Amino acid sequence: MYQTARTVAASSSTRLHSPVAWSSRKSVQDYYDLEAGETERTPLLYVRDNGRYRVAKLRAADPNHLHPVAVGLMVALLVFLLIGVVIGVYLLLLTVQRPWPVSHPFFLVERPAWWQYPVALEATTLDRQAVTDVIVLHTDSEGCLDQERCVRYLQNTERSCWTARRDHIPYNFLIGGDGVTYEARGWKSQHGFDDLPGRNMTLVVGMIGNFTDRQPAQVQYDELKAFITESIRRFSLSSHYRLHGAISATSQDGAALYNQLQRWPHWHGFVSRHP
User: Fold this and answer.
1) Considering 94, 101, 106, 171, which has the largest number of Cβ atoms within 10 A of its Cβ?
2) Least confident residue range of 19-23, 50-54, 190-194
3) Residue 220 burial (CB count, 10 A)
4) How are beta strands 52-57 and 44-49 bridged, if at all?
5) Closest CA to 223 of 157, 148, 136
6) Cα(273)–Cα(275) distance, rounded to whole angstroms?
7) Are 203 and 172 in contact (CB under 8 A)?
8) What is the CA radius of gyration of the chain?
9) Where is the Peptidoglycan recognition protein family domain (predicted)?
């Protein structure tokens, strides 16, 4: 019996000095008792501190915690996607070719600004967004060097066309000697010339004045360039457009104007006006 008592005492002494011994100052729920076999509590971790063992709890992994490597990969992926979008937009802009660098700003006076009468524009709509041809004419009339006179010319021409054939001014746009573009039928409607081809694929631009024997003002040429560039920018004119003049078999109208336009990019010759 004495030997048995010594064995029990030794066992108890060993357990008291064991690294996993219960502490009288700690709650039972704070530790995991290896001998008790309670697996639902947090396991213990043996940590050696200055030659002595102490007990530490293993922390459970947070399911909402993102690993730094995963965060880095996500950021890198977003950066690559952003770079790809920027490159794609840049390449798309390169496909929209500009006929020339334009320093002259584009000035537009829309139709409602010069025509405020009850008769609204009624013209056949173009069934395509970007047309392929531009025909430039001169109006074979007195020129205008300020907005007041240019507006008066448009109003008189609109009245004359409506009185003569119950139709609107036939041009899509007109450019005055003041360096301003005036909207007539605009980008979305077919021109109204019966003697010109390609109604559904052509914009007709009139240069206000008579330019058979003299050149238009340089500001009119500059505004014509700005108009073409703006039409491409609006996707209302193909970047591979064709520039034309219009002549008849018995007339050399606009000879001085066309002498200059034939040197421009995209010039594609004359179209015939039917008598």
Assistant:
1) 171
2) 19-23
3) 24
4) antiparallel
5) 136
6) 6
7) yes
8) 43
9) 106-248
